[in-house]
Amino acid sequence: MGVFPAFGAWINQNSQQPLEEDPKSSEHVESKSASEMDNGPAKMKKYYDEDEWERQDKLWTAAEKKHPWKDAPPKVKVTTKKGICHMHIELTLGLPPDGVFELFTNPHNGPNTEPLLKSKSRKVLKDDGPRQIAKVKKAVAWNFSGRSIAIPISLIVDENRRDLTAKYKKEKMMFMKVFEGSYKVEPVYVDSVRLCKNKKPKSVDEYKKCSGGQGKIASKVTMDQYFQPYPPFNLPPFSWFIRDITIKNTKSVLERLQSWSFSIRNPGVIMSTNKHGKTEVSPKQ
């Protein structure tokens, strides 16, 4: 799987332990052809119920015609401690968790985030059931004095498709001494109050039972990202510039992801943000 292609390399959380890289797996992968090394998530075993996913898709599409869902604006909190900047992000998406995780990890399914982010290559280092570790190379667009410059970044990504969690650490990235993080996707039983009465479901099966199979499931995404520039870019005014542009790019990708989820719930319609920051809805061409 890719590293959050929909969000890019910007949205993740600090991993307290270094990501594992299996030497034997790495050597084995390096000996393969380029096509074998770039085997994306489409070849991974699926750990979700396809019938349930299809049922949720129909529920969301039908509900949008009567009571359109509106994603709440992402919550982004930024703090700095001992020179390391921490972004804590929470957002909800009107799509089931497995679908959201698929958007994050599959570069062929996510929204078009270029020119902010461009995928270059991906090599699987370890494939162990629902868990996969990969080396991912991307190019992130930064604006310097009105010019867009592609900054290369290499990450080691550890994803678990069953738990819907992921973490990563930078292997190489220009300007950044620290760049690492993680995220998780959790279910939100949006119709539980209306359909389950006084019962608060604790699992998908409980929710399906108490809602009579008519309850929609949304997703809550929680992310934390830590970054620190190398000297002298960790000092003002360089540090201010890098901090501001990282936060700005993060918010831009979050907005694109929510627009993409709207388009999935509303086939034939596209939501976008114009140059003035206003949301526009238009039919697909």
From TrEMBL:
Transmembrane segments: none
InterPro entries: DUF220
Every DUF220 domain range: 148-220
Biased composition (Basic and acidic residues): 21-35
Span list, region Disordered: 1-42
Protein name: DUF220 domain-containing protein
Phylogenetic lineage: Eukaryota, Viridiplantae, Streptophyta, Embryophyta, Tracheophyta
